[in-house]
Structures are given as C-alpha cells and as structure tokens.
Amino acid sequence: MRSNADACSTLRLTPMKHPLPQIILSLAVALPLAGHAADATRQAEVAQRGAQVMPFSLAATTHVFTKTAQGGVQRVVAKDPADTGQVKLVRSHLTEIEAQFRQGDFSAPAHIHGMDMPGLAELRAAPIGSIAISYKDVKGGAELAYRTAKPELVAALHRWFDAQLSDHGADAMAGHMHHPGMHSN
C-alpha cells in the first residue's frame, strides 16, 4: 500500500506528463498565426511603399508570376478589365520598368520590397543583357517576360517571384504557362 506522500508524488508527476502535448499543440496553432500576422504586417508595408512606385492601385490589380525553365513571366492585370484607367497605368508602369531592368536598374523593387529581397542581389549584379526582358500588352494589362540561359539567374528570378508572391499577398498569384490566353492580347 502506498503512503500519502507517494500518492502526492504521483499526483505531482501526472500533470508533468501532459504539458508537452499541450505545448506542442499550442505552438502548432500559434506559430502559423504569428507568421500570418507577420506576413500581413509585411504585406501592408509593401503595399504602402508600392504606392510610391506603382502608379496603379494594388488592390484593383492582380500580379501573376509564372516561372518558366528560362526565367518567368510577370503579368499585371486590372481586376476589372474594363477599368481603362488602371489598364493604362499598368501598361505605362511596366513599360518604364522594362527599360529600367534592361539597364540593370532594379531600384523600384528594392524600394518596395527591400534590398534583402530574395534573388534581387543576383539580378542587380547580372551583366546587362544577360537577362532578356520583353514587354507585351495583354487583355486588361501588360506582362514582362524574363529569359536567360544562366541557371543561377533563372534561380534568382524564381526566388524573386516567390518573394513578390509572398509580399503582395491576396493581390498576387502564381501562374501557369498552359493557362489559356497567357500570351494573347
């Protein structure tokens, strides 16, 4: 037969067996929520800085980032394709961005997303001409296609696209080249 002291020891130990699963469960729930809050804060900061660089409304447009084997395609379209004002602003901005990027000037994304944006350092350091960049009008907006033969620059473009997807949140989406109309006007 156990003494009261033994029973108390057992009682004291019993709660100690159960906190670990509770802690793990709490962390499993809390960490994604903390990450989501951090993402929401970052996205709000990016949207605020983006308004200083992008003349169109981030909330009225969608950024579509499609990775390809040679680089990728960045498309910006008005959520309402009949919104000719937004379409005109998107086209004007992407025309300017194309010219800047062709000269190795990636200061606009650095201003919006920060100098430590994934992939950006490699893009800024790339020799001019090592990434072919082409502009195209598309229904409701415009797109920039990035192509390079250098695997390290393809990887940098993909990291850069991933960072933009994260930073633009609900106003961005990953695209797929096989979607109808991806290269149509």
Brief sketch in words of this structure:
With 185 residues, the chain is an alpha+beta fold.
Structural summary, described in words:
With about 180 residues, the chain is an alpha+beta fold. The protein has helices spanning about 5-15, 20-55, 85-100, 105-115, 120-125, 150-170; strands spanning about 60-70, 70-80, 130-140, 140-145, 170-175. It has one domain. Helices cover about 55% and strands about 20% of the residues. β1 (about 60-70) and β2 form a beta hairpin. Mean pLDDT is about 75; it is low at about 5-10, about 25, about 30-40 and about 180-185.
Topology:
Blueprint: H1 4-17, H2 19-53, E1 61-68, E2 71-78, H3 84-102, H4 107-113, H5 120-125, E3 132-138, E4 141-147, H6 151-168, E5 172-174
Parallel strand pairs: 1-5
Antiparallel strand pairs: 1-2, 2-4, 3-4
Structural class based on helices, strands and sheet pairing: alpha+beta
Largest sheet: 5 strands, mixed
Query: Roughly what percent helix?
Result: 40-55%
Beta-sheet strand percentage?
Answer: 15-25%
Question: How much is the radius of gyration in Å?
Answer: 24 Å
Query: What is the approximate shape?
Result: globular
Q: Helix and strand string, N-terminal first?
A: HHEEHHHEEHE
Keywords, please?
single chain, 185 residues, alpha+beta, five-stranded mixed β-sheet, 6 helices, 54% helix, disordered C terminus
